[in-house]
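Deviation from plan, reported transparently: flavin-adenine dinucleotide complex.
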Amino acid sequence: MREADYVVVGAGSAGCAVAARLAEIPGATVVLLEAGGRARNPWLHIPIGYAKTMYHPTLSWNLKTAGEPELHGRQVNWPRGRVLGGSSAINGLIYIRGQAADYDHWRQLGCTGWSFEDVLPYFRAAEDNERGEDALHGQGGPLAVSDMRDRNPISAAFIEAGQQLGFAYNDDFNGPEQEGVGWFQVTARNGLRCSSATAYLKPARPNLTVLPNAPARRLIIEGGRCVGVEYADGQVVRARREVVLSGGAIHSPQLLMLSGIGDGAHLQAMGIETRHHLPGVGRNLQDHFQARMVFRANAPVTFNDVANSLWGKLRTGMEFALKRTGPLTFSAGTAGLFARVMPQSATPDVQFHFIPFSADGPGKGLHKFSGFTMSVCQLRPESRGTITLASPDPTAQAHIQANYLSEKFDRDCMVAGLHLTRKLAATPALARWIAAEHLPGPAAQGDAGMLEHARAQGTTIFHPSGTCRMGDVVDERLRLRGIEGLRVADASIMPTVVSGNTNAACIMIGEKCAAMMREDAQQRMAA
Ligand SMILES: Cc1cc2nc3c(=O)[nH]c(=O)nc-3n(C[C@H](O)[C@H](O)[C@H](O)COP(=O)(O)OP(=O)(O)OC[C@H]3O[C@@H](n4cnc5c(N)ncnc54)[C@H](O)[C@@H]3O)c2cc1C
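Because the crystal trials were delayed, the predicted structure below was used instead.
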C-alpha cells in the first residue's frame, strides 16, 4: 500500500497544476493517479495532431451522450483526454480565459474568492506569455502561451470580414475586452503543444509520484473522511492530509457516485450504498454547442489543398521539422470573433472559430475540395444536463444527457449566430474566396432552416462543465460538502461555464485549489 500527504486523481488540465503546486509545499509528498498512459504518441505534441488523437482508441475516452431529444435523438461524440495532460493533451490549443463578468457572476452566486480580481493572479501565475508580462498577463509561469505561427490569407480574410461588419480588431481576447475579431493565442512553445503535463510535470520532482495507467475505482471513506483511493486492480493509496478529485466534468461526479456520494435514490437504484446523500452530484451539466458552416473556396487557399497532395504534405512536414511553422501548427481555430447576437446580452454571447480547412466533423477526414469552416458556439447556454451512472461498474461509461438546445434562448442564440455566419460569408473580404456554401447549403433558409441545421449537424465544442457545482457540491474552497479531506478541482466545479474555451480556466482552478490547500494547511499548523 502506498501513502502520501496528498493524493490527486486525474492528471488533466487542473490535476497536473494541483499536484505540481502541492509538491512545492516543503516536506509534502504527492501521488498523482492517471487512468491513461504517458504522452508518447508524437501527434500529442504537434498542434494539429488533435485531429488524430481526439478519437484515438487509447488516448481518448471516446464518450458519447445519450440520444439528445432536441437533436432528433442523435448521440453526440464526447472525446476526453485519457493520457498525462488529460484533455489539454488532445485539445485545440486555443488560449481563452472567458470574460471577467463570468467570474464576477460566480462571486455574485456566493462563491467568495472567485471574482475576476480574485482569480486573475492564478491565471497570471500559470502563464508564460511570449508577449511578456503586464497587468493581465504573466510571464515565467509553467503554461506556454504564444501567437499563431501561421497567419494564412484565408484566416486573415475572416478577420477583415469581421471588421467589414463593424467588429473591432481585437489583438488580445484575454485583454481588457473580449469582444471583436482577431487571431487566437495558443498553448504552445516554439510550435509544440504545451499540455498541462508538459507545463507542470516537467522536470520530475522527487516528492511527486506520477502513476500513469492507474484508474481510480473508488474513494475510501472512513468515518465521514476521505482517507485514500482504491485504484487499478485493488491497489490502495492512502492520503495523510487530503484527496483531490480532478477527473474532469464526467469522471469526477462518476467517481463520487461510485463511492456512494450522490443522490441517494439514484445510488440505491444502482445498488450502491449511500455514504453521503448529495443530490447535486452530476447535475448542472453545461456545454458549449457548436454549429458549423462549410464553404467551398474558389482557389487553393485552404489546408485541404495542402493535405490532399503528396507534395503539399511533404512540404508541410519539412516546414514544420525545420521551422516549426505552417499548417501543422494550426490550432482548432486560427482566428476568432466574439460577438453579441442577442439584444439582451451585455457582453459577447457567441464565439466564432475560423478554421482554414473543412471536414464532415471535428476530427474527421478533410474534404477533397478546397474548403474552410466557420463554427459558431453559444457562450452562456441556459440548457442543463446530467451525468448519472449507467452501471455500478467503474469501467462502464456514465450516462450523459447534455440536453442541448432544450431552452428557447439557446435555440434563438444559435439561430442568430448562424445568420451572422452567413453575413460574414457575404462580406467582400470573404465572398471573393467563396465558390459555394457547402453546409448547410442554400436550401437552408430563415430561422427554421438555421435551427434545423443546428439540430441535424450541431455538436459539442468539448467544454462540459458544472457537474460538481461550487456552492452546492463543493464550497468556495472546493471542499466537498459533508465529507472531510476531499476536494474537487476541475471543470466540474464551475457554477456556470465560462464564456470561451475552458482549458485556461481549468488550469486556473487547479492553481487556486492548491493555493487554498496550502493556506489551510498553514492555518492548521498555526492553530
Ligand atoms: C477535442 C477537444 C478540444 C478542445 N479544445 C480546446 C481548446 O482549443 N481550448 C481550450 O481552452 N479548451 C479546449 N478543450 C476543453 C479543455 O481541454 C477542457 O475543458 C479541459 O482540459 C478540462 O480539464 P479538466 O481538468 O476538467 O479535465 P481533463 O483535462 O479532461 O482531465 C481529467 C483527467 O482525469 C483522468 N481521469 C478520469 N477518470 C479517472 C480515474 N477514475 N482515475 C484516474 N484518472 C482519471 C483523465 O484520463 C484525464 O487525464 C477541448 C477539449 C477537447 C476534448
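The chain is about 30% helix and 20% strand. We consider this an acceptable substitute for the interim report.
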